[in-house]
Amino acid sequence: MDFFQYKNNQLMAENLLVSQIVKEYGTPAYIYSKATLVRHWNAFNDALGEHPHLICFAVKSNPNIAILNIMATLGSGFDIVSQGELERVLVAGGDPKKVVFSGVAKSVTEITRALEVGIRCFNVESLSELYRINDIAKKLGKKAPISLRVNPDVDAHTHPYISTGLKENKFGVTVERAREVYNIAKQLEYIEIEGLDCHIGSQLTELQPFLDATDRLVILIKQLEQDGIQLKHLDLGGGLGVTYTDEKAPLPSEYAKTIFEKLKGYENLEIILEPGRAITANAGILVTKVEYLKTNEERHFAIVDAGMNDMLRPALYQAYMNIIEVDRSLERETRIYDVVGPICETSDFLGKQRQLAIAEGDFIAQRSAGAYGASMASNYNSRPLAIEIMVDDDKSHLIKRRASFEELWRLEALVK
Ligand code: LLP
User: Is 329 exposed, middle or buried (0-12, 13-18, 19+ CB in 10 A)?
Assistant: First the structure.
C-alpha cells in the first residue's frame, strides 16, 4: 500500500495535490511519500519480529540523503556497494556498525575507509578479496568482520539483467567452493568470520527461489559447524519484488514466515535482509509534463519532459510501469499513446501503448518510480537531473534541487 491516491479525481501525494507540488517546483520531478517509506521499512522490521535481525536498506535503490536519514532514524542498517554509498550513509546519520558492504570490486581505498569507520561486515565475493581485506586489516591493526557471498545456483525467475544467483553470474563463490574459502578465512589472522551472505536477484515475485537458496545455505552452515566455524548471522540479501502492474509480490511477513520454517533450530542466528525496491519503489512517482502531442499514421505520441536519462528502467529492462493522469477532472479525449521523452534515441520511452486522457501542458505520473529511478539517472543529452521532493503529510521538501547549467560542466576543463 502507498500514499499516492486520487481524491476528487486529483492525484494526491499524502495530503498534497501532486499538481500543486509540480506547479510550485517544476518538472520532471520525483515525488516521494515519507509515510510510504516508513510503512514499508516497518513491514520488514515487524515481519522479523522477535527473531534477532537487522534490516539493511539497499542504498543503491535510492541513495538520496533525505531517504537515508529517514531510514537511519528508524534504526535501519544499510547495504552499500561503494565508498560513495558509505559516505552518503555517514552524512545522513547512519550508524557504520549497521553497514554491510557488498559488491564484487571493492578497491583498496574502499576497504580501508570501511575498516576505519568500523562497518558491521564485508560481504566478500572472492578469495582474492578475502586476502586483500586481510592485508589491509593487518596494516591498520584491526580485525575485519566478514561473511562470504555464496552463489547458490538458483534461478530467480526474474529479468536476466537483475538475476545474480546463477553459476554463470559474476557474483559470489559457489556453494561447493565456499566451505574451502571459509576454512582459509579461519586461518587468516586479521579476519573475523561473522556470517554467510547471499543475494540471488531482484524483483522476485515468488518465494520458492529464496527457499531453495536458504536450503542450500543451511546445508553449508551445518558443514561449517563440523569444521568448527560458528556463524553469527545469515544475510539473505534483497530482492523481494513489488507490484508494478498485476504482479502478486509476496509480503515481507509471508517471506519471513517461510524463512523461519527453514531456520528451525537456528533461533539465535541473526537474520540480515537487504531490501531496496520493496521499500522505495512504490514510495515514489516521476511526474512529467506533456510538452507535445503528435500523431502519425501508426501512433499517437505523448512527448514528455522526462526521458530515459531520468528513468532508464523501460529502456534497459523493458520494464512496464504504470502511467497515470495527475488530474482526472479535466475534459480530455482518451487515446492510446506511446509516452516518449526528449532524448534522441528510439529506446527513450516511459511506456508504450498507454490509454491516457491528456492534452498538451498536462502532467502525468509514472508510478513505482522510487526505486532505481533517480539512482540510475544520468545527464545524457546534457539534461540536468530531475528534482526530488519528499512529501510528509501536508508538507513538501525539496530534497534535490535542479542543477544549473554551469554545474553540468563544473568538473570539466579546457585544454590549455
Ligand atoms: N543486495 C545486493 C547485494 C544487491 O545487489 C541488490 C540489488 C540488493 C541488495 C537490493 O535488491 P532489491 O531489494 O532492490 O531487489 N536496476 C535494477 C535492479 C538492480 C538490482 C541490483 N542489486 C532495476 O531497476 O530493476
Answer: exposed
